[in-house]
Amino acid sequence: MTDWIGSIAGLMANTTITEFLLVSTVFAIVFLVLRSERVKIPPGTKKLPGPMPYPIIGNLLSLSKNPHLSLTRMSKTYGDVFQIQIGTKPVLVLSGLETLKQALIRQGDEFAGRPDLFTFRLVGDGKSLTFSSDSGEVWRARRRLAHNALKTFATSPSPTSSSSCLVEENIITEAEYLVRKFKQLIDEKGEFDPYRYVVVSVANVICGMCFGKRYNHDDEELLNVVNLTDEFGAAAASGNPADFIPILQYLPSSSMKAFKEINRKFLDFIQKLVKEHYKTFDKNHIRDITDSLIQHSQEKRVDENSNVQLSNQKIVNIVNDLFGAGFDTITTALSWSLMYLVAHPNIQEKIQDELDQVIGRERRPRLSDRAQLPYTEAFILEMFRHSSFVPFTIPHSSTTDTVLNGYFIPKGICVLINQWQVNHDPNLWKDPFKFCPERFLNTDGTTLNKIEMEKVMIFGLGKRRCVGEVIGRMEVFLFLTTMLQQMQFFKQDGEKLDMSPQYGLTMKHKRCHVTAKIRFPLLATH
Ligand code: HEM
């Protein structure tokens, strides 16, 4: 955001007074015209509350560097449903768990759209399932395809192994490689940056599902793509001024240049793999998600639940979304987990005691152990809640004129959904800023409290809820338990942990080097 403010300041410095007055007059006229076209509120409904916008920039300055915090503060004044203006565009902000359930579940169809934003048009050549403004039948048919592909190639029972499903085997293998890599780094250097290696292991899991392929930790091609997520997340985050003030799209901006470059690199990487799949495709031997999408497009199957006919590109491009969404979120979750573990050694010890008692040292953790590891599960929930590393869902839009909590909502308004606010709402959580896994346990301390668990907002809700949630939760559990069964992590002597999140689509902490101790020698078998 500072990049944009810098551009505006630079522009003003190079402008004469006459030019400045002329531009101001034009903007003032545009502002007055826009004001006169204000939305008419139907009788019996209320006008959305919200702060007074300034001409041209609206409430942009009030968003600050951390929009999740400023919009949470505003919700205390204006309530769960209020409007701000970014540039000249109105934006609806929703907070409060009950309000989010009302909008996204009970009125789900009315809030399932995506706004047509400048940055979103740059993702996946404008054809992304996640970011494009397709809603209705096209989006629904693509979402069903994504769901089915994940079911077939991830969560279906494994025909050949003892694992409960295909992806379990895949994750356990990658987690084991990761632990070996950490051990090697400890022997060689005594410390390491976990994020750098976790990202490759997590990317390998989704690469296995999508392309039947894995990469080693030093593969330049993969590293070039997976290391772009910070810049991607900064530009695609909710409230990017370039999405709301059209003139900013034409000003020189290093962050927007980087964003375009990232999308191009990402698309090239995926397209290369898709092309290889087309060359070796055999309809009698479907190897992975890409093959199954190619098969679907070649057979020109009409989606069985609708009459919509999707283009080949819109079918095969679904793999871009699955790959893109499938590694950054989980890597960020694991990286935050390691930060909390080194910041709270007593919590790390408690998890390890639980793992020792339930699993022991003779075998590796499995998904079937989850029910017997309530403290570990409570830790994961608390990591999701406390970090709230996806502070807003991806922006939604209203698909029709509607009413929410008595307020009139016009069709097509961009909607920001503040997950961070729900996860830190003092009406829902005792001491919301304290990191305390115990809050998710019943008083007996051995079972999880379902009501508390369901209050955590990190995967969204309703029609647009994350399609990879099941896999995401499995991955975080298996990577974490495999690491913690074998290794104990510490912060380095003298290293200060900086856990302040950097705002973005997914919020990251500053990269941090940790050290680790091997808890017991590696077993030859799982
Ligand atoms: C810890 C891991 C994850 C978190 C926290 C997470 C979170 C989210 C959130 C907040 C959304 C936006 C929901 C909305 O707009 O209302 C989303 C959407 C999505 N996620 Fe995830 N996600 C995770 C893992 C995954 C994985 C592993 C995949 C794929 C394999 C995936 C695929 C998607 C897709 C395709 C969408 C777009 C859905 C749509 O627009 O209809 N996610 N995710």
Automatic annotation (TrEMBL):
Binding-site residues, heme: 466
- An example Gene Ontology biological process: hormone biosynthetic process
> Where in the cell?
Endoplasmic reticulum membrane; Microsome membrane
The alphabetized UniProt keywords are: Endoplasmic reticulum, Heme, Iron, Membrane, Metal-binding, Microsome, Monooxygenase, Oxidoreductase, Transmembrane, Transmembrane helix
Instruction: Show the GO MF annotations.
Output: heme binding; iron ion binding; steroid 17-alpha-monooxygenase activity
Stated membrane topology is: Peripheral membrane protein
**What SUPFAM superfamilies does this protein's entry cite?**
Cytochrome P450
What sections of the sequence does the record tag as coiled-coil?
A: none
List where the protein spans the membrane.
12-34
Q: Which cofactor does it need?
A: heme
Task: Report if keyword Iron is assigned.
Answer: yes
Gene Ontology CC annotation, any one: endoplasmic reticulum membrane
Q: So what family is this one in?
A: Belongs to the cytochrome P450 family.
Function recorded in the entry = Cytochromes P450 are a group of heme-thiolate monooxygenases. They oxidize a variety of structurally unrelated compounds, including steroids, fatty acids, and xenobiotics.
Xref: PANTHER family: CYTOCHROME P450 1A, STEROID 17-ALPHA-HYDROXYLASE/17,20 LYASE
| Record-given protein name | Cytochrome P450 1A
Q: Which gene encodes it?
A: cyp1a1.S
